[in-house]
Design goal:
This protein has 123 residues and is α+β, with helices and mostly antiparallel strands. It is built from one helix and seven strands. The strands form two sheets. It has a four-stranded antiparallel beta sheet with strand order 2-1-7-6, with no helix packed on it. It has a three-stranded antiparallel beta sheet with strand order 3-4-5, with no helix packed on it. Strand 3 and strand 4 (62-68) form a beta hairpin.
């Protein structure tokens, strides 16, 4: 006697996985990032993440200008460094993402959300 390919238990498992895949994003409840941490010349400051904002950070070479667009994505729009690699990095938006302008010693980190920032480097 052959066993059927799809049993009642198989159907229950598939239905359970479908329900979980729908409920997990709803129950997760992460808040969108709400803060920007700016490292400039050895100083750290926090700025609230606001849509359509321009933020400036002072480094040894001059001012690095960041822009927050309407979707909360942050990118570098002006940098005094010679290669301007930070400008070509593109926007960041998720908690824990960082844009760094190494020659100007300036960095901007997106922070906030339910879990906050998780540091991947241990001491």
């Amino acid at each position: 006697m052959m066993r059927p390919l799809f049993t009642v238990i198989d159907a229950a498992v598939v239905a359970g996985l479908i329900v979980l895949s729908i409920l997990i994003p709803i129950l997760k409840g992460d808040e969108p990032p709400g803060m920007l941490i700016i490292h400039e010349g050895g100083h750290v400051r926090e700025v609230e993440l606001e849509r359509w904002a321009t933020i400036e950070a002072e480094g040894p070479l001059g001012v690095t200008r960041f822009e927050v667009d309407g979707d909360g994505r942050v990118s570098v729009i002006k940098a005094p460094c010679p290669n301007r690699l930070c400008v070509s990095m593109g926007p960041i938006a998720e908690s824990g993402e960082v844009i760094v302008c190494v020659p100007n010693r300036v960095a901007l980190e997106v922070a906030g959300g339910k879990g906050g920032v998780v540091d991947a480097v241990s001491r």
